[in-house]
Amino acid sequence: MSYTGTYTAIVTPFKNGQVDEHAFRKLIEFQIENGVSGIVPTGTTGEAATLDYDEHLRVIEIAVEEARGRCKIIAGTGSNSTHEAIELTVKAERLGVDAALLASPYYNKPTQEGVYRHYKKISESTGLNLVLYNVPGRTAGEIGVETCARLASDCKNIVSIKEAGGSSERVSALRRILPQGFTILSGDDSMTLPFMSVGAVGVVSVASNVIPKQITELVNAFLGGRASDAMNLHLNYFQLFRDLFIESNPIPIKTALYLMGMIENEFRLPLCEISKSNQVKLHETLASLKLV
Fold first, then answer.
1. What is the DSSP string of 188-223?
2. Long-range contacts of 145-151, Cβ-Cβ distance < 8 Å, separation of 24 or more
3. What is the pLDDT of residues 121-172, one digit of tens each?
4. Which single residue of 13, 29, 66, 222 has CA 20 to 30 Å from 35?
5. 217, 225 in Cβ contact below 8 A?
6. How far is 25 from 66, CA to CA, in rounded Å?
7. Of 133, 213, 258, 276, which is the active-site residue?
8. What percent of the chain is helix, strand and coil (3-state, nearest 5)?
9. Is-contact 9 205, C-beta < 8 A?
10. 35: left (phi over 0), alpha (psi -120 to 50) or beta
């Protein structure tokens, strides 16, 4: 199965301290109606770090139920514990997801050999397609280019990478060394177009929570040979891409969805509401794009 296009790193809405299942289902419908290739529940943007074990699996289950095969579901099942990552991935597979997204191990800072063994062990434990997730700004380490190549060669169900290292040079190095069928997805909306220019074929997007149609159009325009159309969309929404990271993700994107009347303005500590000055700035950007 090929992973190209737009995949929304979907938020987890809360209400009165609980997962707001009704609002979550509405968000999924909004994504599907606007043509995304898939959604990615229980990732960074989905506040997976503060979901308890049962909530984590329930959010994945709702995503599968609501999508009903109309788009791909790539569930976030990463952990700094290989055992826990295996357990979550196997259970997500039983729930019917299409693939799992696995952030590189964080905090314990394994060597590249440890990173390789971590992913290889997960690969051997499941029949799911697996998507690596390189996000050194969150994990304090990266999946080395050579490690990616080893995993692509040795683990046939490791088929893609979400690249959030912020470097087109690294994407070039990955594209040069990885098999052609192994896809690279941008992990940063502002870098989607630059990354696609050197071999990426889509994005796991935060911005598509609020502009799924436009992000899908940007990606499809570039893949369809209409680079100038993709550039125009990139520039039109570039300020939004920037403002969605004026505070730690997912604070700004959840605030944007709240301002659009789609979810409650609720987070799980240690995340909290956006500062008043940044909310004003974000509202101005959304208003300029006629989103509020």
1. SGGGHHHHHHTT--EEEESGGGT-HHHHHHHHHHHH
2. 145/170, 145/173, 145/174, 145/177, 146/112, 146/177, 147/112, 147/115, 147/116, 148/174, 148/177, 148/178, 149/177, 149/178, 150/116, 151/116, 151/119, 151/120, 151/123
3. 999 999 999 999 999 888 888 999 999 999 999 999 999 999 998 899 999 9
4. 13
5. no
6. 6
7. 133
8. 50, 15, 35
9. yes
10. left
Catalytic annotation present for 133: yes
Q: What is the pTM of this model?
A: 0.96
Q: 208-217 burial, b if ≥16 CB within 10 A, otherwise e?
A: bbbbbebbbb
Q: How far apart are CA 68 and CA 159, in angstroms?
A: 23
Tokens for 7? 């995949």
Reported CATH class of domain 5-224: alpha beta
Q: What backbone torsions phi and psi does residue 174 show, to the nearest 5 degrees?
A: -65, -45
Of 162, 213, 281, 290, the active-site residue reads: 162
Model pLDDT for residues 6-26, shown as the tens digit of each residue:
999 999 999 999 999 999 999
Residue 119 is among the residues annotated as catalytic for this protein: no
Cα–Cα distances in angstroms (integers) from residue 230 to residues 18, 219, 250, in the given order: 39, 7, 25
Map out the domains of the chain as residue ranges.
5-224
Question: Which pLDDT tens digit goes with each residue over 39-86?
Answer: 999 999 999 999 999 999 999 999 999 999 999 999 999 999 999 999
